[in-house]
Design goal:
A hairpin with a 5-residue loop joins strand 1 and strand 2. Helix content is 44%, strand content 8%. By secondary structure, it is mainly alpha-helical. 17% of the residues are buried. The mean pLDDT is 86. Helix 4 runs antiparallel to helix 5.
Length: 229
């Protein structure tokens, strides 16, 4: 009888210790730690902690600087989400989004799925796509006083990123679009050049990655410039 009582008491102590440990760890890891991390993030870099939201001069949210957007003319056939869209050439254009597709499994909503094309460099379809894109971009960015040569089109202008949602373009691609954007918006080339220079970011810490231009931030500034004339 004494042995039974000892066993029950021992088990009770173990269960009690386990419950106390569960409560303490729940408070530490489930409440205090998340609050501390959230507090530090909000204090040190609130913009990034809240999704890197981009707003226009009126304070309206226009997107996130982490997610690329398309700048297209209205669809001719809104019922077909996969119909080819024509770029609105008054805006700086982002990288291609060939990896995006629709989710046919969902019959209630039209969903867009992010991803890469996964085509090899010698894939005939990819080669044809790049060749066609290069010719199209050279033609679209040529103006009455400046003709873009095929060899002037940078690689990121004719290839999509792994996600299809890359928010940045290279300074070379942004510079290629300056004359066209200036002409379409009746701005001086120097004004648009300065806009691109102001929104060109260097390598992270001076050595990580490549110089880049965030298209959403650049187009938001372009809209403010056009509307403020």
């Amino acid at each position: 009888m004494i042995r039974t009582n000892t066993t029950v008491a021992h088990a009770t102590r173990l269960i009690g210790a386990g419950v106390r440990a569960l409560l303490v760890l729940t408070v530490l890891c489930g409440v205090l730690y998340p609050l501390a991390v959230t507090g530090v993030a909000q204090a040190v870099f609130p913009g990034k902690a809240n999704g890197s939201v981009v707003t226009d001069p009126s304070g309206r949210t226009v997107g996130s600087s982490l997610i690329g957007q398309r700048y297209d003319l209205p669809q001719q056939n809104p019922a077909d989400p996969d119909a080819a869209a024509r770029p609105d050439l008054k805006w700086f254009q982002p990288r291609l989004s060939d990896g995006l597709g629709s989710n046919s499994a969902n019959t209630q909503y039209s969903l867009r799925v992010s991803g890469a094309t996964n085509k090899a460099a010698d894939n005939p379809d990819l080669v044809a796509s790049v060749t066609g894109a290069k010719a199209a971009i050279a033609a679209e960015n040529s103006t009455a006083t400046h003709r873009v040569r095929l060899q002037d089109v940078p690689a990121d202008a004719v290839t999509s990123s792994g996600s299809g949602l890359d928010p940045d373009i290279s300074p070379a691609y942004a510079d290629l679009q300056v004359r066209r954007v200036a002409e379409r918006n009746h701005l001086g080339i120097e004004q648009v050049d300065e806009l691109v220079a102001d929104h060109t970011q260097g390598r992270t810490f001076g050595f990580i990655g490549e110089p880049r231009v965030n298209v959403l931030e650049l187009n938001t500034a372009l809209k403010a410039l056009v509307e403020g004339r």
